[in-house]
Amino acid sequence: MAFIDSIRRISLQFGLLLVLQRCFAGRKYLENYLDDNSIFSRTYLEVPEVNGMALQCKTKYKEWSPLSLAAVQPNLQALSEGMKDLRDLEVLASIKTEAGAEEASATLDGPNHFIVFHTQQMSQTASLNRLVPMANSEVVLMVLPGDEIGSNDEAIEAALREFARRPKLGLLGFSHARSVRPSAPNSSFAYAAGVSFGPVAIRRKAFLEVGGLSEEVCAGGCEASAALELSSRMWSAGYSVGVYAPGQRRAPRPCDSAVHLRALNGEAVLKAAAEASRPEPTGTQLQPTQRVPIHSCSRGKPLPNSTCSGGGGIAVSIIMQFFRRGKNIQTIMKGIKDTAPGVELLVNDDSRSDWGAWVASMEGLPGGGFLVYSPDIHEIRGYNRLAKLARGELLVFLQDDDAPKEVSWLLRAQSLFRHYPELHLLGGNRGRMDSGKIIDEELNYVNGPKYGPSTLSRTCCRNISTADPKTGVKFMFVYKINMGPMIVPRHSFLSSGMFHTALSCAGDPGIGFDYEYSIRMWYSGQAVGLYYSGFQKNIGDHVTSGTRGTFRATFARKRNELRNNKLMYTMYKGFHHQNGTRMAMEHWSNTMGGEALKQPDDDEATVFYLEKVLQHRSKRPNGGPYAAALAAREAGVMGKIRDKKILQATEL
């Protein structure tokens, strides 16, 4: 308990800062510590809750942790023995699929534990470069195989304490260090020119700013020395490097000698380390001798004689939310392999089920596959986490009852993003314009015109009437899109703050997150589009599984849908729905003209809703022809009504 109390006490220093930053964030969604880097996310604050509308959730899942543990192929028994409170930490563990799932699932079963199984061969540094962006914390303890013995409660408490004391501390070692200079007499902390793994802790923001770990600095089993090369970039970018308990350092690793700090960055780093060694310096006193752009690695401008990790050449990452729909796996995977070769696949398996089926089906994926066992956090948080784990320039969000079918669906989407730079969200299912004057009380939104593939419904859907002139692809701009598939540039998704966590508690359906993200795009000056993807929809046992599988799940789904649709009017007051829809309509007509100018206005959309929807709800309260007639009078559209039942009802 003393350890937990220490974490809580120290984390208050971070928590207060987060609260203040959220309070002043307001409607400026882009001011949340993000950049346009398509490889590494700088996201460590999610989208701010708007107007205090966050849910009061009774869950042990933590949206934000003071410290996360990122472990590569860990010895789980040694790790659990060294940390008595492992269950209370956020843990992200990278495990090869051949290791199996049984031991990892049994050990890492806490409310904030994520197991990342990967089918492709990955170096240890490459694995950490995936796990650290995925973390939701200020500090990350990075653990390589063999470091478990040093990854204990004392190391975690020391890391939290030292990073809280020193705002410019970027990297903290616990074993071998180069050119150590104590910060004060008898202090357990000392500044160092460089540190090695064994393990090491990093300030996540600093790690992402300098480009992460080099994946090629020391080939042939010397990856543990990558922390030395990272040390040089930390100093050069204005951060400091330290070592805890320098008097208890263990012997250097056999391959540490392969990395020479002087060869990496000359005398500059050593001089900066010396200047930082004054007694208990504050963050403002740390002035590096030589400052370089902080994005030098992630933006392709590495420091002299250093090798920085990159994007891996991945164009597209497909991210899927999955929960106990094992019968659909074969159909989905066949569609992906047949229509989207070369993509990277990431599956958020909230149910921690069907491991064998997923691993077998991911074999042969050129881009590799990641199966993430999550603690049942559901779609919003699952998509957000895996977006930070992904590396593709484009992210394709799917559900576990969506399956690609047409060979060219991805090529068409990529061409649209190239031709329309303002396009930051593309749907391949259905889209909406919130045209109309009446709020549908059963849905809490304006039930305006819907576009996309036709269904048996009276109201769905209008055809996409315009096309991209360069490719002939049927395409239009819309105000809102429906999930499955949703396609976004990764840099845009991360810089906008990802899907909004205030729309559901962890473990509950986030119905409406697709609408909210669509509205947010227009609100922040980005465009939303719709095209025909040709996906198979609602495959398998769609009606009796997922969020419709039980009464509780169905009730939670409907409750959140009504709440969230109403919440949009508070979150985007003065913009949703009239100004937002007008912006989408004007952009569509200005960009594509022609058919876009013939779409229904508010009066026509209201008449369509009254005739095709409301008057057919005769068995429900506030529905039927008479209710439609009253609503028509109130909306001032009675003169445009042509439906005989509604007209007859006016005579009653």
Automatic annotation (TrEMBL):
The keyword Signal applies. Residues 1-25 form the signal peptide. It comes from the Eukaryota. One of its GO terms (molecular function) is glycosyltransferase activity. Residues 274-300 are annotated as: Disordered. Keywords: Signal. PANTHER family: GLYCOSYLTRANSFERASE, UDP-GLCNAC:BETAGAL BETA-1,3-N-ACETYLGLUCOSAMINYLTRANSFERASE-LIKE PROTEIN 1. This is Glycosyltransferase 2-like domain-containing protein. It comes from Tetraselmis sp. GSL018. The lineage of its organism: Eukaryota, Viridiplantae, Chlorophyta, core chlorophytes, Chlorodendrophyceae.
